[in-house]
Amino acid sequence: MSAVSPRTRLTVVPSHRIAVGRGLSILAALGIVAITLAAMGRSPIELAGLVVRSTVGSRFGIEDLALFMTPLMLTGAAVWVGIRVNLWNIGAEGQLYAGATAATAVGLFTHWPAIVALPAMVVAGALAGAAWIFIPAAARAWLGVSEIVTSLLLNFVASLLVYYLATGPWADRVTGALASTERLHVALPELWGAVHLGFLLALGIVVGLGVGLAKSRFGYETAVCGSNPQAAHYAGIKVAPRILAVLLLSGALAGLAGVFEVAGTVHRLQGGLANNYGYLGIVVALLARGSCFALIPAALLMALILDTGIVLQTTQISSSAVLAITGLLVLAIAAGDEMAAYVRVNRN
Amino acid sequence: MALLSDLLGHAVLSGGVLALGALGEVIAERAGVLNLGVEGLMSLGAVVAVMTVNATPHPWLGLLAAGLVGGLGASVLALSSVVLRANQVLCGVAITFLGLGLSSVIGRSVAGVPVSAVFEPVSIPVLSAIPVIGPAFFSQNILVYLIYLVFPVMAHFWLFRTRSGLDLRAVGENPAAADAVGVPVMKYRALAVIVGGVLAGVAGADLTLAVVPVWSDGMIAGRGWIAVALVIFAGYRPIVAVLSGLLFGLVTAVGFMGQARGWPVAPAILNTLPYLGTVACIIVPMLAFAKLRSAMAAPAALGTPYYRSGR
Predict the structure, then answer these.
(1) How far is A279 from B57, CA to CA, in rounded Å?
(2) Where are the beta strands (DSSP E) in chain A?
(3) Cα–Cα distances in Å, from B280 out to A89, A157, B72, B165?
(4) Is B295 helix (H, G, I), strand (E, B) or coil?
(5) What membrane topology is given (chain B) (predicted)?
(6) Best exposed site among A314, A343, B70, B166 by fewest CB in 10 Å?
(7) Which of A150, A327, A338 sits opposite B279 (nearest CB)?
């Protein structure tokens, strides 16, 4: 085996290696997709042209990208604050539903002016998101029960409850559209076409979170708890309350994604509102790796994939194909990031 | 009496899917690999079973094809998270996306079409005549006997009574020590993930060939995730995992009965029962019995990739 020079694994991978690894793995995934499409008798080049024209090539496409980015930045941030300290919140989907439901309750059943109602919706949504993860968070912090499965199972509960509310007690009785509530009385102001204030707020939250966690005592202490709970304990940091706090923050961020969806984009509560944003938040957080600010380009990339999905659906390729393509991309990127960590060692 | 018997019968049937999924996951997690792709693999198994049976009216061929597809999907997971050592949570979620998406794409032509041949119930003489439990336990399709008797005993024997089972558990507890005594860590982990994937695929086939004889998009509805949760509840023990599958089948059956009998509770609310029940069953025992926390603890190296140089 002397012909092959040995490789060693870097513990900290420089970003240019990650960029190359990722570029190659995305290309490989797209190559597999192109071959599959060609085998199905579709022209990958023609489809790619169509996708570029109708996403970044048109005003409507760009507005759509911003609308997709808004919840993705927030669910991405929700998962990211967890991963930062070795906690996996896979339940952002459910927390998004909880936030959306709380915001809808404020929007439907109060008749406050927008200046009062909108902040109330934001607060209610963030609290509801945090409340939705409270039990998994407390169980993880004090009982050591894996948060992965408990947070995830509550997604199904939230989705069923929203479906129940939207088709049952809260259903729109005015227009007779039984699948959703009526339009909320208040909406986030629109800034540019359909792009609403939520987009700017989400950007601000991500930047604020990045700066806040890097500069604050809370950010430092939670980082210590994440990388070495025993060291944190010996340093006098109480680990369990920090775990709880991080997960509640994570739930609140996902709840905000739900608030902005109902208050800015969808304007009513309906089943399927979460649109997989919670699960895709995991992908966004993975793409961003250690950097909070990188959540913004990561959300853009994910929004581009979602928008591509919408375009492909107009050409009779089902939306589930897009889910499969997303899975393939995540797999490729996860593998690419790992392979980028290996460097050749020169023994001479 | 008839109600109780119906309830039990339904519990045994629907619990079997969860039991199989959980059993496969026990094997993977005992080797230290968290396979979060169960939901996707089950979905692939379910659709491939329906397609195979509709092409060749043999349920056993459908079961075989589902097992093969589950194993194939799991080998993709093994390649990425065991051989390449990429993050197990991410690879698992990716496999779930991939499996759900692919099964929906390939299943379009068979969606809503009743399956042409299913596993028919087989009555065991004498035993099936016992009131209440007879029809529920001894008048079921053959898969039920495999799931509740044969597979868990085989898995238990393999993991706890053979040398290779010991090696597999060692790889999940302390891969560095196992490696030091010459146990091939990567081989055992890949094998465990693939065996788990085969069982997940078969679980999907059990769903479409014995429980709900039709493929529809999204029909797995979190069963794979519940199976992953049951593994924690069962303390990573194969026989307990299968029994807890039965327990959760009972929770599902209560909701199902409620709908069939027109209880004054919305179906959507009844449908939350299995998920809420699972969460409660994972957390409450830990809260009540502090001792359980060490007895039911996860394999020490669960979820962590093994690097020989980093030991």
Answers:
(1) 38
(2) 7-9, 190-192, 195-196, 342-344
(3) 18, 13, 34, 31
(4) helix
(5) Multi-pass membrane protein
(6) A314
(7) A150
Q: In this complex, which of B217, B228, B272 lies closest to A149 when CB atoms are compared?
A: B228
The β-bridge partners of A127 are none
Which of B98, B266, B293 lies closest to A324 in CB terms?
B98
> Taking CA A303 as the corner, what is the angle to CA A300 and CA A304, rounded to the nearest 5 degrees?
85
pLDDT of residue B311: 43
Domain boundaries, chain B: 2-295
Reduced to 3 states (helix: H, G, I; strand: E, B; else coil), residue A79 is helix
Query: Which residue do the tokens 């085989």 mark?
Result: B154
Cβ contacts of B77 within 8 Å, gap of 6 or more: B35, B37, B91, B92, B95, B193, B197
Query: Residue A294 in contact with residue A22, Cβ under 8 Å?
Result: no
Contact B84 A338 (CB under 8 A): yes
Which candidate, A220, A119, A84, A97, places its Cα nearest to that of A164?
Answer: A97
Residues of A with CB under 8 A from a CB of B: 8-9, 88, 90, 135-136, 139, 143-146, 148-150, 152-154, 156-157, 160-161, 163-164, 167-168, 279, 282, 286, 318, 320-328, 330-331, 334-335, 337-339
> What confidence tier does B207 reach under pLDDT thresholds 50, 70, 90?
very high
**d(Cα A119, Cα A74) in Å, to the nearest integer?**
17
* Cα separations in angstroms, A228 against A67, A100, A287: 38, 35, 24
Chain A: residue whose CA lies nearest to B267: A164
Strands in B120-176 per DSSP E: 121-123, 139-141
What DSSP letter does each residue of A225-267 carry, written as one string?
Answer: HHH-HHHHHHTT--HHHHHHHHHHHHHHHHHHHHHHIIIIII-
Which residues in chain B have their CB less than 8 angstroms from residue A145's CB?
232, 282-283, 286
| Beta carbons of B95 and A331 less than 8 Å apart | yes
B241-274 confidence digits (pLDDT tens): 999 899 888 888 888 787 777 777 888 888 888 8
Contact B236, B30 (CB under 8 A): yes
Is residue B268 within 8 Å of residue A131, measured between CB atoms? no
B303 Rama class: left (phi>0) / alpha (psi -120 to 50) / beta: left
Highest mean pLDDT among B23-27, B138-142, B215-219: B23-27
Residue A196, SS3 per DSSP: strand
Q: What is the pLDDT along chain A (348 residues), one digit of tens a residue?
A: 445 566 777 877 888 888 888 889 889 988 998 898 888 888 888 888 888 887 888 888 889 899 999 999 999 999 999 999 989 998 999 999 999 999 999 998 888 898 899 999 999 999 999 999 999 999 999 988 888 889 988 999 999 999 999 888 888 877 666 678 888 888 888 888 888 999 999 999 999 999 999 999 999 999 999 888 899 999 999 999 999 999 999 999 999 999 999 999 988 898 888 888 998 898 899 888 888 999 999 999 889 888 887 787 777 777 788 888 888 988 998 888 888 888 877 655
Q: Which residues pair with A344 in a beta bridge?
A: A7
Closest of B14, B12, B10, B7 to residue B226, by C-alpha = B14
Q: Domain ranges for chain A, please list them.
A: 75-280
CATH 1.10.3470 fits B2-295, yes or no: yes
Main-chain dihedrals φ then ψ at residue B187, nearest 5 degrees: -65, -45
